Each structure stands twice: as C-alpha cells, then as structure tokens.
C-alpha cells in the first residue's frame, strides 16, 4: 500500500495551485486545516470508514462540519469523496502548508534548548538562520533538559545539533571507532 503522503500529494498540489492562481492561499489554508480537524475526529473517522455510508453522504457530513468552506472548497470535498480520499485531509493540509511556506519563502524552525531562550537569543538565532537558509523564519521553542546545554535546531529537513549531548555522542563515536 502506498504511503498516505504519496497518495495525498497530487490533491495537495492541485489545491495549492488553484489557491495560488486565485490569490487565496490563506483562505485555502484555513479551509484545509478545518477539514483536517474534522476528519481527525474519531466519530467522523468511523463514518468515513463505514462502507454502508454513501460517498455523497460522507461528503455532506464533512461539509456540514466545516463551516468555512466556500463553493470551491465544497467542490473539492466532493471530488475527494468521489475517489474515497476524504480521510487524507490531514496529509493534504500538511503538504499544502509546506508548499505555501515554500512559496512565501518561509520556514518554520523548531529550536530545542536545555534552558529557556531569551527574546534576544531567539532574535539572534532567527537572524543567523534567515541568513543561512535565505528564508523568512518562524520560530517555535521548547526546553529539553537532557540536552545538557546548547540547542538542537530543526528547519524542514535540516537538523543542526549544537547540543552538548550531541557533541558528547559524536566524541564517544569517534573514540569507539
């Protein structure tokens, strides 16, 4: 069976290209996020996986739950319903956001540090990352005491391990080889 992200990719790209052509990236982002939340609900998942419920009825349920769908969004739900792909909304929304961020030259960066970062430290890291990645940076921070010191940075597929724990692991590996 194909990975869900692989199956969702053409639907995400189609939604993205349409939204981009209409200048409605933000609106489609909200619509897809709302639909993803709706189909993630266990009760809705039960209905979507029930073969006794007609595809048209499944589409109607998703449309009724999602109040922020415009006519094109409703058509999109019907299209996904016709090919039994309503359950892919979370993957579609995720891929749409990735395409949107790429278009807007923005990257969401997750910084994990051993201690809480000050605003000045966050700003300095954001400026350095913006220069290195050549993109607008949106930072989310979290604390993980097990890092001992330093930071661990995730920016898309890029991982920068500047933590003491990571450096100790590299040192141990070098000594053991």
Automatic annotation (TrEMBL):
Location of this chain's protein in the cell: Cell membrane; Membrane
A Pfam family assignment: OSCP
Signal peptide: none
UniProtKB keywords: ATP synthesis, Cell membrane, CF(1), Hydrogen ion transport, Ion transport, Membrane, Transport
Alphabetized GO MF terms: proton-transporting ATP synthase activity, rotational mechanism
Record keyword Transport present: yes
Role: This protein is part of the stalk that links CF(0) to CF(1). It either transmits conformational changes from CF(0) to CF(1) or is implicated in proton conduction. F(1)F(0) ATP synthase produces ATP from ADP in the presence of a proton or sodium gradient. F-type ATPases consist of two structural domains, F(1) containing the extramembraneous catalytic core and F(0) containing the membrane proton channel, linked together by a central stalk and a peripheral stalk. During catalysis, ATP synthesis in the catalytic domain of F(1) is coupled via a rotary mechanism of the central stalk subunits to proton translocation.
Protein name: ATP synthase subunit delta
Organism the protein comes from: Oceanospirillum sediminis
Gene name of this polypeptide: atpH
């Amino acid at each position: 069976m194909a990975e869900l992200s692989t199956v969702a990719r053409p639907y995400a790209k189609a939604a993205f290209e349409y939204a981009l052509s209409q200048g409605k990236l933000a609106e489609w982002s909200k619509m897809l996020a709302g639909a993803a939340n709706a189909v993630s609900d266990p009760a809705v998942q039960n209905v979507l996986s029930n073969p006794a419920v007609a595809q048209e009825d499944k589409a109607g349920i998703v449309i009724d739950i999602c109040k922020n769908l415009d006519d094109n969004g409703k058509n999109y739900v019907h299209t996904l319903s016709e090919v039994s792909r309503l359950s892919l909304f979370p993957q579609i929304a995720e891929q749409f956001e990735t395409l949107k961020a790429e278009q807007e030259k923005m990257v969401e960066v997750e910084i994990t540090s051993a201690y809480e970062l000050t605003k000045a430290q966050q700003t300095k890291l954001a400026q350095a990352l913006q220069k290195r990645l050549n993109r607008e940076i949106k930072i989310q921070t979290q604390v993980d005491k097990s890092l001992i010191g330093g930071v661990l940075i995730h920016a898309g597929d890029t991982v920068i391990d500047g933590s003491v724990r990571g450096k100790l692991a590299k040192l141990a590996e070098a000594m053991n080889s």
